[in-house]
Amino acid sequence: MKQVAKKDILSIRTIVAVGIGSALFVILGRFGSIPPGIPNTNIETTYALLALFALLYGPVAGLLIGLIGHTLKDAIFYGSPWFSWVISSGLVGLIIGLLVAGISIQDGEFGRKEIIRFNLAQIAANAIAWFAVAPTLDILIYAEPANKVFTQGLIAGAANIVTVGVIGTLLAAAYAKTRTRQGSLRKLN
Prior knowledge:
Structural class: mainly alpha
Radius of gyration: 17 Å
Largest sheet: 2 strands, antiparallel
Helix content: 55-70%
Shape: globular
C-alpha cells in the first residue's frame, strides 16, 4: 500500500520564503514607512509585501513573516518589540494566507475574480488585526488608553488596507504575468 505524504507546511521553500520575507519586512519597515502625524503609527508598505508572501507561500509563511519581521523591526529600530502589534502583523499574514488559499497565482491566475478575493481577504485581515486585536491587546498588555489605541488602530488599519489594495494588488498582478498559465502553449526560452 502506497502512503500519501502529508504536505509539509514548513518545507525548505517555505522556510526560505520566511527568511527572505522577514528581512524584506524589516527593510521596508525602515525605508518604506510614511509617518501620517499620529504618534507611533506609520503608513507601512511592509503589509503589501506580507500579503504577497501570504498569497504565494500560504498562511504559515504569512504568520511567521509577520511575527518575525515585525519583532526584528521593532527590536532594531525601537529597542524592543511592541507585542500587541507584532501579534497583529502575524495575524494579518495568517488570515490572508488562509482566505486566498484557492488562488492559483503560481499558474498565472490573477484576474478580476482573484483580485476581488485577494482584496476582500486583506480587508478582513487588516480590519480584524488593526481595528480590534491590536488596540485590545494594547489595553490588556500595556494598559494604554482606549481612545489612543483605537485611533492608532483605525489609522494603521485603513492605511494598510489602502497600501495592500494598491501596492499588493499591483505586485501580485505583476507576479502572475511572469507565470505561464496552465494549458498555455507559451514557451519560455
